[in-house]
Inverse folding.
């Protein structure tokens, strides 16, 4: 039986027990949430000391979220960190914090943070595709950019960032696409380099995708040294491919545009699904290139080539990629496999036109920011930083800045002399409408397009026309469910 | 009267003192102390499980889009009705069921076989092998999946290189809609550590007298396994079956890593949970995704109930079915 004394004796034991229980509860509930607004999936890169409160005299924290477009490659992050550090050192009122999220997770992460009321202040670089998901979450910059001179920027580019009457971004960078080609592989095959001028022929032939096919087959080589035009060519032992269009993420719209020209999955009425004939031809070209002529690597082969960065592997002769790929021709560490390369113009497509699939980037401010003026100040600094333009491979939207941009690239790639005139020429042939343009129920429709791309990339013996017909039907269902 | 019912019959005689103790100051203090010690779990459960579950039930009745949380609308059971016309849901269910039909028996059989192996007195260095078979489960799933992606690569993977060495043309494990399911099941054998340990504990709890008696009756190894081991470890087998079944329906991480979160190739890895994830975080249909989560809960609950109902016919407990 308990005595008052024994109860009294036990009291000191209960106090630690209560404290221990509370401590455990706090530990269980706390989850180690960091003091800053950085997310677990992001890479906190700028400052570990950014826990300063926003009280009087303390700097205002502005978070810059990178990952929706370019900017998340390992080669780019140190430069972004340096720019952020330079901004923080340049003034005392704002603490800029960099959060880098893997591109494949960036949309999910941002959406989740918006829902949780924890949105970052600045997002970008963000491309046309990203705008389809987050454009209406961005702040109207009109009150802040009144003094900014936009006269040197193509009005069409400015309009890209006008959503529902709001100017949500200043065109910052444009990325035309063209061929990167490995000169060493051309030299080994004793083949002439592809044209650098629009309208130029290749060895007496018009520069078309048919000509590219023949050239690419000669540059596709098996382990025994036979090329894809040879009867002895062993398709099970390909060690070098003639052509690729890397980093398109299975996007059937992108592939159709590269090989077929401009088009849209949405008819003019804005609600009817379609797949234009030139896009059918474009996809058929690519499909045959993968599975019949085998001068384009399928997904399995791509994974084996520098983990998807196929041109960097040194085993791709020609690769259709954007200007931003200058970031990643060479690996972050180790000896490059590609030592002598240049760029060439794209050929004429089945629609009789040259089409250079265009990417364009801006940096925007979330409309939930509590400090729009400070965010705009940071944004202005970022958009004026030449280091970022360089590392993102971003051709400035402002024409007068391009000479410096290309001079910077020349310094970087010396002693190679890359013909940047190709890039400037290709800017005159953008895809219109964009391959990343609006579709009803965008995320789901975009995913369906990638499903089709995945099927093309991984499955031989398809009736592609039937697949595309079924795809249009699927898209229509997705559009209708919007 | 069975032993258990006799025990139940004695409870009223014991119960009054317990009731009386609970009413004393000491009893109340003891209860309070106990509650305080379980408080971390209770608080954690409420915050991290019960509240999110309740929230997801509410969200399943809305069209919640995380990009525009202020525009949320109550839409009743529309999300549940939409499931009937969602072809991707049917596909994902079929992918999950097909995977479960391969992976569950394979994993259970392999884990049991390994447990028997490391329980054998004939095995030299049993503890070393037990550790080795358990160790892979300590490796993060994403890391081990990335390793397996390399091992299963069609042209450069060790598995196909090994098969090639003996004249077999290995399949394109991860890019073929036909083979990617078996490949994932194969990958799952890497993580049998926990299941093996539970089987091992079950095997070690079988009284040796039963084997001796079986031997006296003329039973060989197989007959002993069939008539002694299996019945005696059937509760453990039942537990592992339930866990494996739930695991199959919750399969996500490996499929996400292998397919970059897209269900490639040709939706052959679009498991139910991956479909749910894509709806929630890819397409931002958080309301519909919440409804899918409750469908998953209902399916797993239903299967578990069915298994429990059938357990009486094959699970032995305390010497009885």
């Amino acid at each position: 039986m308990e005595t008052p004394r024994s109860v009294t004796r036990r009291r000191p034991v209960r106090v630690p027990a209560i404290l221990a229980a509370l401590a455990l509860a706090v530990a269980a509930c706390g989850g180690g949430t960091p003091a800053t607004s950085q997310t677990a999936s992001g890479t906190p890169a700028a400052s570990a000391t950014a826990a300063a409160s926003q009280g009087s005299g303390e700097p205002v924290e502005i978070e810059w979220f990178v990952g929706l477009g370019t900017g998340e490659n390992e080669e780019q992050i140190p430069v972004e960190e340096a720019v952020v550090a330079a901004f923080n050192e340049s003034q005392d009122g704002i603490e800029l914090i960099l959060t880098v999220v893997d591109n494949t997770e960036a949309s999910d992460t941002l959406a989740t943070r918006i829902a949780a009321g924890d949105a970052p202040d600045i997002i970008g670089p963000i491309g046309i595709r990203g705008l389809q998901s987050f454009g209406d979450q961005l702040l109207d910059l009109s009150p802040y950019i009144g003094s900014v001179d936009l006269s040197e920027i193509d009005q069409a580019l400015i309009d890209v960032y006008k959503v529902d009457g709001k100017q949500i971004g200043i065109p910052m960078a444009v990325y035309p696409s063209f061929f990167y080609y490995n000169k060493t592989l051309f030299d080994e095959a004793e083949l002439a380099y592809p044209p650098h001028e629009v309208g130029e022929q290749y060895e007496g032939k018009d520069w078309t995708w048919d000509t590219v096919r023949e050239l690419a087959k000669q540059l596709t080589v098996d382990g025994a040294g036979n090329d894809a035009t040879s009867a002895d060519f062993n398709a099970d032992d390909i060690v070098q491919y003639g052509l690729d269009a890397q980093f398109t993420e299975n996007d059937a719209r992108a592939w159709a545009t590269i090989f077929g020209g401009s088009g849209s999955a949405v008819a003019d009425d804005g609600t009817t699904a379609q797949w234009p004939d030139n896009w059918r031809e474009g996809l058929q070209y690519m499909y045959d290139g993968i599975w019949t002529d085998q001068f384009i690597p399928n997904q399995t082969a791509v994974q084996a080539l520098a983990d998807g960065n196929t041109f960097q592997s040194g085993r791709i002769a020609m690769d259709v990629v954007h200007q931003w790929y200058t970031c990643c021709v060479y690996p972050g560490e180790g000896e490059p496999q590609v030592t002598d390369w240049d760029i060439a113009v794209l050929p004429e497509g089945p629609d009789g036109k040259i089409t250079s699939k265009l990417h364009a980037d801006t940096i925007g401010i979330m409309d939930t920011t509590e400090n729009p003026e400070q965010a705009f100040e940071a944004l202005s600094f970022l958009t004026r930083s030449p280091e970022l333009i360089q590392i993102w491979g971003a051709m400035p939207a402002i024409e007068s800045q391009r000479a410096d941009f290309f001079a910077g690239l020349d310094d970087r790639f010396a002693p190679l002399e890359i013909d940047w005139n190709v890039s400037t020429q290709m800017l005159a042939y953008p895809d219109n409408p964009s391959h990343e343009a609006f579709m009803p129920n965008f995320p789901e429709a975009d995913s369906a397009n990638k499903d089709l791309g995945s099927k093309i990339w991984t499955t031989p013996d398809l009736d592609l026309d039937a697949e595309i017909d079924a795809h249009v039907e699927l898209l229509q269902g997705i559009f209708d469910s919007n | 009267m069975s032993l258990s019912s006799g025990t139940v019959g004695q409870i009223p005689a014991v119960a009054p003192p317990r009731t009386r103790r609970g009413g004393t100051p000491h009893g109340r203090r003891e209860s309070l102390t106990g509650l305080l010690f379980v408080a971390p779990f209770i608080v954690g459960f409420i915050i991290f499980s019960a509240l999110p579950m309740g929230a997801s039930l509410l969200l399943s009745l809305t069209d919640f889009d995380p990009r525009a949380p202020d525009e949320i609308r109550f839409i009743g059971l529309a999300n549940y009705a939409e499931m009937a016309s969602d072809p991707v849901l049917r596909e994902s269910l079929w992918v999950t069921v097909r995977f479960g039909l391969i992976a569950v028996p394979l994993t259970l059989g392999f884990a049991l076989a390994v447990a028997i192996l490391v329980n054998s007195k004939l095995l030299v260095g049993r503890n070393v092998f037990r550790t080795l078979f358990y160790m892979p489960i300590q490796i993060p799933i994403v890391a081990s999946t990335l390793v397996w992606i390399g091992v299963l690569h069609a042209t450069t993977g060790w598995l196909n290189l090994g098969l090639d060495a003996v004249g077999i043309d290995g399949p394109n494990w991860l890019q073929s809609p036909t083979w990617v399911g078996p490949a994932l099941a194969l990958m799952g054998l890497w993580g049998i550590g926990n299941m093996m340990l539970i089987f091992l504990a079950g095997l070690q709890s079988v009284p040796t007298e039963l084997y001796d008696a079986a031997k006296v009756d003329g039973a060989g190894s197989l007959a002993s396994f069939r008539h002694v081991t299996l019945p005696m470890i059937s509760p453990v087998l039942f537990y592992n079956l339930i866990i494996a079944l739930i695991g199959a329906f919750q399969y996500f991480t490996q499929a996400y890593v292998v397919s970059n979160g897209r269900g490639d190739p040709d939706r052959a890895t679009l498991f139910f949970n991956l479909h749910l994830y894509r709806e929630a975080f890819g397409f931002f249909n958080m309301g519909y995704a919440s409804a899918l989560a409750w469908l998953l809960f209902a399916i797993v609950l239903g299967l578990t109930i069915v298994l429990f109902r059938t357990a009486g016919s094959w699970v032995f407990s305390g010497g009885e079915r």
User: Anything to note?
Assistant: The longest strand of chain A covers residues 60-66. The two ends of chain A are 72 Å apart (CA to CA).
